[in-house]
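Lab notebook, bench 4. We co-purified these components, and the gel suggests they stay together. Before we commit to crystallization screens, I want a quick structural picture of the whole thing.
Request: model the full complex, all chains together.
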Amino acid sequence: QQQVKQSPQSLIVQKGGISIINCAYENTAFDYFPWYQQFPGKGPALLIAIRPDVSEKKEGRFTISFNKSAKQFSLHIMDSQPGDSATYFCAASKFDNDMRFGAGTRLTVKP
Amino acid sequence: NAGVTQTPKFQVLKTGQSMTLQCAQDMNHEYMSWYRQDPGMGLRLIHYSVGAGITDQGEVPNGYNVSRSTTEDFPLRLLSAAPSQTSVYFCASSYRGSSGNTIYFGEGSWLTVV
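Here is the predicted assembly.
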């Protein structure tokens, strides 16, 4: 039973558009919500993360929106670029290193 | 700074064979883990270790064994390979910062069991 549900499975966006990936979690004990980016043939790398005491975190073109009451969080990529084409994983953990990952979203940004 | 190093990168095994995936990190992290990545399943935790001499099971531990004799090394052993273990395996190390757990992944080991 997947504790973090991610959608969509794949996403195609035009260059300059906004990419939105959504995740929902079940365990209210989760208190750390990172997003990882993975390029083909490479391991995932931390992109951005948020704690539940804030509703939004922005780093450059990447923004996490967090809705604690709905147990949902999302990644927004503004002005999407072909170099953003990758697989994105949301994740959630308690403060004990046990990280649970979503199934991943394959993003393609068309030039 | 190498980070997390995994070997081998690619391996083909026959059903029933055993093998060890090697993992080493040079960041002095106490926490290390092994994940497998399968299409549509994300990353699933196999085993983890919170320090030398301490290991524990994750979500999908069956068929795998680990040991942690040093802080740097965390090998994953497949005891008797099965086709269901065909996957991409990622070793990771992490530290617990003030905001949460930052995980550093290796580049992956592609394993095919025939």
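The first strand of chain A starts at residue 4 and ends at 7. Worth comparing against the SEC data before the next meeting. The mean pLDDT of chain A is 93.
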